[in-house]
Amino acid sequence: SGTVISGTPIAVDFWSVRRAAGARLFFLSHMHSDHTVGLSSTWSRPLYCSPLTACLLHRRLQVGVPGHRPARRPPPPRPALTARLSLQVPTCWIRPLEVGQSHVLGKEVTVTLLDSNHCPGSVMFLFEGAFGTILYTGDFRYTSTMQGEPALRGRHIDRLYLDNTHCHPHRPLPSRQHATRQAARVIRMHPQHHVVIGVYSLGKEALLVDLAMEFSTWVVVSPWRLEQMRLLELPDVFTTEEGAGWIRAVDITEIRWDTLVSWNTLHPTIAILPTGRPVKVTHPNIYPILYSDHSSFSELCEFVKWLKPCSVIPIVRGGICQAYFQKYLSSAPQALPDLKIPKPVQESVQQQRKRKAQEPRCLLKRAARHSVPRGVVYESPEKHTEKSEESMGVKVLQQNCCESAFCSQEEGCTCCHTGKEKGKEELSGEQPGVARAASTVSQAPVSDEHFPTGFAGQYLLTPLNVLKQNSSQKFDKLVEDFFRRGEAS
Predict the structure, then answer these.
(1) How far is the C-alpha of 139 from the C-alpha of 116, rounded, in Å?
(2) pLDDT for the residue numbered 336
(3) Of the residues 164, 213, 303, 400, which has the fewest C-beta atoms closer than 10 A?
């Protein structure tokens, strides 16, 4: 669920360099697995994140130096100090940035990390540069305290990349405090039962701590999770000792029918599934609780209304949410993205033009002749032209072959115009006189200067609905006449 931000050198939670276009600065918002897809020991670029995410990254991912080859079967984690675990992974590519401070990267981008209230270490990114001001929320749960953030107060936001996971007016969500009380109510309804709570590898730690405090019991976890809880510096309510407490935290994938049957053969057990998404209950002792680390629809509306960005861009693909926030957007002019061609591409284009300028004229002629049969054929132009014009917001055929690299004239190349007078006027906006000049192209002498583009402009770049006006015999005759004039010149 990553994004390459258009018009900038920035990519967030996006780890495919091949598909990242001109991105040079890579950011990790948090350590959930769907945001680290593609991140592995082969990564060899600076990665910017919060200090806590950097600690988790050291511990859970093999992000190493170039040439580092991880073991085929990494050994299971051993009980050890977190500092020792973090030293097992080279850290040259992990660049932690302090939260709440502004950092200048590459002399072109200023970034400020802000707590996103999603999971430990998760942050929002506030980017500033020639492209304007962009706020990328990543996964976040809005709270009114965010309005007190100095970096956001009174800030003009050109683009808001918004977590739209629950951006639907008919999908209400309670606050996390209310959801915690619901979970406590379910537990009180089963005083003789053990309680198993399904959670991801990171997140919802506050729910576990609150329930442990509420019922004065230990929360039993795996050794791996206990070490992570200590890394996060959470209250000392977790243990690995079986039987020390009657609340246990397990991976969310363990909450299913067969495990509930197995647990209940040993002791009456209920399972609590804290999630904001619809789930299918496979056992009567499974209790879903609407507990989400993503913003509800009403919270999103409140956030956008307060921030007043110029535009809202949904982060989750396939989600449509701009219409809900249109009335909250700022009417101030928006900074346009910096759509300059990346430097390596610019250099290659310049080199290509230089090579073309050095090619002999005779080679250009020969290339034009041999390229005659390879014209582009458009499928059903009459059917799709009108739809394409409306959807793309541009006029097709507005360019002509005068823009070709072969044409040396700057204005009015008569070899590049064809078609009916009326059709040409409507499509290209040319004056009638230009269209009449084009109609006489078969009778006018053709110079070497125009030779390569005349045929391509008259036939290869002409829509089928114009070519169909001529019979095949007339078409062949025009081709023969054209080559005959070229040889005579």
Answers:
(1) 7
(2) 58
(3) 213
